[in-house]
Design brief:
Blueprint (H helix, E strand, L loop, with lengths): L1 E6 L3 H17 L4 E6 L3 H4 L15 H8 L5 E5 L11 E5 L8 E6 L9 E4 L2 H10 L4 E4 L4 H9 L5 E5 H6 L9 E5 L11 E6 L3 H8 L4 H17 L7 E8 L4 E10 L4 E10 L5 H20 L1
Parallel strand pairs: 1-2, 1-3, 6-7, 6-8
Antiparallel strand pairs: 3-10, 4-10, 5-8, 5-9, 11-12, 12-13
Helix pairs in contact: 8-9
InterPro entries: HemC, Porphobilin_deaminase_N, Porphobilinogen_deaminase_C, Porphobilinogen_deaminase_C_sf
Organism: Methanothermococcus okinawensis
GO molecular function, one term: hydroxymethylbilane synthase activity
Length: 301
Amino acid sequence: MKLVIGSRGSKLALAQTYYVKELLERIDKNLDIEIKIIKTKGDINQRAPISQLGLGVFSRELDIKMLNHEIDIAVHSLKDVPTLWNRDLTIAATPERESYYDVMVYRRDKEIGDNSIVGTSSIRRRAFLSLKYPGIKIVPLRGNLDTRLKKLRDGKYEGIVVAEAGLRRLKIDLDTLNLDSVRLEIPPAPAQGVIGVAARKKDREIIKLLKRINDSKTYLESSAERWALRTYGGGCQAPFGALARYDIRRRELHLICSVVDLENRRILEEEGRIKCDIGDIEGAKKLARDLGSKLREKIEL
């Protein structure tokens, strides 16, 4: 089978895409796989804040190429894919999740404290950091991971906040860069650390193939997190975090959702648990809708 995979051109996007390619080749050595690099709006415009570029800033062009049959599947960071998506496309597989943590990366010659300049491009990170670490000064930061680390090393920031998953997937050794990192106690973006492999819903043979590289636990957890955000509203740019964890032994799904009430400067939280099988996506959605609705009601009070 000939398979054309669409990917953004950043090092991280390509690392994720080659990982998916490797997984597919393990299950079918006869696959003829081509990788096609596609520039997205978020790649082209490196100056404007991501919040000003609209939904799907890192996925829309890949979706269009797939709908036009220029590519067969697309590899996404699932947290960047809008929860309200194209009805002709589906996330057919989520390989095993990497770390969901946000980390503060900092220069070893500078301690992070009051008035430290910390860079981030995320509304969620900015909102939670402003309440949990009120002494730091948060400023915008754009660019791929290499660019962000270079700006940190050049002294433009004393710290930057990034996803730990990106550092791991690129095998970045912070020691050699004279940098260090610490995990932050803030809720992750829904599906942070998850690769989403998208396909056309009508391509049953491709979807059947992709299901063989799917990790059911990751799929269940990320589905719950994304449905909570979808119910709450606001898309990828809401100051909303969610984390689902499935206990295989106890057959129990635990979901916790948090949002920053910017007007009243407080963090609102809801959590719940259900007993379910690992493939019970409808049960996960029900739990997620319940928690998302409760948070939306709280923020509107």
